[in-house]
Write a structure and sequence with these properties.
It is a single chain. It is built from eleven helices and six strands. The chain has 231 residues and is an alpha/beta fold. The chain folds into two domains: 150 residues, HAD superfamily/HAD-like (Rossmann fold, 3-Layer(aba) Sandwich), CATH 3.40.50.1000; 68 residues. It has a six-stranded parallel β-sheet, sandwiched between helices. α1 packs across α4. The chain is globular. The structure holds magnesium ion. Magnesium ion binds next to loops. One of its GO terms (molecular function) is hydrolase activity. Pfam families: Hydrolase (PF00702). This is HAD family hydrolase. InterPro entries: HAD-like_hydrolase, HAD-like_sf, HAD_sf. It comes from Herbiconiux gentiana.
Length: 231
């Protein structure tokens, strides 16, 4: 038996900030590593082909595929990861415009948490953009020390919010790191179809989350309706 909705958790890349911020970081990292190898920048169209394949699959390692295609070996993925982390920022102007209206609609009704694989610098970006005052739980992987899809980050966030899984909903844009691990623990799931979500999701993919939405507009009432339906 599921009770009232008491907590809403949000992934950052996709739901809150444009995933193109990550794309810019990974392209900058690839170009720098290639320059050090004495070769030219990554072909952008070839990059988009691989990026779209990994988005469509909703699984597998993007960094592994990119290292294999553009750095000569899949074994260079850790190097690519380190170079990407240094470049990954969320510039002003990349917050989705539906974020603050959504958070205002939830304000005072539920606990709200960040639940994301992000660097600690994301906190300063969320403060700059006026999101931080709405956040009760800061589940930022680089700070907490656990990464999605590991259940530990979800369990940490639930404990911090003081709620059980059946009282919470997780909103994310990936099946492999958001929807599936959240559903496995018993949270409600919302799949936001932007950024790293597939360009064209299949019917089978769309059937995985409790709710699939194009963005956060009008989502607050839909969350309470979803929770009522889970009860
Ligand atoms: Mg994401």
């Amino acid at each position: 038996m599921t009770g009232a909705l008491r907590a809403v958790f949000l992934d950052v890349g996709g739901p809150i900030y444009d995933d193109e911020n990550f794309v810019a970081a990974v392209l900058g990292a690839l170009d720098a590593l290639r320059a050090a190898d004495g070769v030219g920048p990554v072909d952008r169209a070839a990059f988009r082909t691989i990026y779209d394949e990994v988005r469509s699959a909703q699984g597998g390692s993007l960094r592994g595929a990119l290292a294999s295609a553009f750095l000569g070996s899949r074994s260079r993925r850790a190097e690519l990861h380190a170079e990407t982390r240094r470049r990954w920022v969320h510039p002003a102007g990349t917050l989705y415009p539906d974020v603050l209206p959504f958070l205002r609609a939830l304000d005072g009704r539920v606990r709200v948490g960040i639940l994301a694989n992000q660097e600690a610098a994301v906190i300063a970006a969320l403060e700059r953009d006026g999101v931080a005052p709405y956040i009760d739980v800061w589940g930022v992987s680089a700070v907490v020390g656990h990464e999605k899809p590991s259940p530990e980050l979800f369990e940490w966030a639930l404990a911090e919010a003081g709620v059980t899984a059946d009282e919470a909903v997780h909103i994310g844009n990936r099946l492999d790191t958001d929807v599936r691990p959240a559903a496995a623990l018993g949270l409600g799931t919302v799949w936001v179809l932007r950024g790293e979500a597939p360009p064209v999701p299949t019917a089978a993919q769309l059937a995985e989350p409790d709710l699939a939405v194009p963005g956060l507009d009008g989502l607050a009432p839909a969350l309470f309706a979803l929770q009522a339906g889970r009860a």
